[in-house]
Amino acid sequence: METRPSPRRRRLVAASPAILAGLLLVAVGCDYDPNAPGRVGGGRGGGGGAVDMSGEWTYESELFLAAEGLSCSIEGMTLVLEQRDSTFSGSYSGATLICIATGLPPDTLLRAGFGAVVDGRVRGDSVFFDVDDSRFRHAGRHSGGTVSGTAVMFLGDGRTLSGSFSAARQ
Q1: CATH no. for residue 97?
Q2: pLDDT tens-digit profile of 38-62?
Q3: Rounded mean pLDDT of the chain?
Q4: What pTM, to 2 d.p., does this model score?
Q5: 39 lies in a domain?
Q6: How many domains does the chain have?
């Protein structure tokens, strides 16, 4: 004799996918976006605690185009940033770009009086921002009073300088 589940058991089994889907939606709804309005950094994107990028920072970077023997550094740059929730923007001043090509003396290409820090985002202890526009991108980690990571500068001719940057809170 074959046993069949009771009608009550069949309803529970049939309802199980719906219940699981509902629980899944509740679980997803309880998840949070560390970049949602009202949040200041924090979240699960790589670290503990909220990151506040507001204030004055001393910035420097080293960028390379190894295939052509070119290295560039940015020195003497000050960032002044203002953060709202998990986004920030601001300005920079005092930047000097110095490049050295193999076999040539150092050349100061640019003394920038000022410019903009744009599209800044904080996710956990990760920090992302552009200098002037999306052709000079930064991705780094905040630790204590410093941020360090990678910098990429897209040149107009299709070449790319890449390297590292660091910024220390003043």
Answers
A1: 2.40.128
A2: 444 444 444 445 799 999 999 999 9
A3: 77
A4: 0.69
A5: no
A6: 1
| Per-residue model confidence as pLDDT tens digits over 84-112 | 999 999 999 998 888 888 877 777 666 76
Containing structural domain, residue 120: 55-169
- Domain membership flag for residue 27: no
Over residues 54-79, the mean pLDDT reads 93
HEC-encoded secondary structure of the chain: CCCCCCHHHHHHHHHHHHHHHHHHHHHHHHCCCCCCCCCCCECCCCCCCCCCCCEEEEEEEEEEEHHHCEEEEEEEEEEEEEEECCEEEEEEEEEEEEEEECCCCCEEEEEEEEEEEEEEEEEECEEEEEECCCCEEEEEEEECCEEEEEEEEECCCCCEEEEEEEEEEC
Domain contains 151: yes
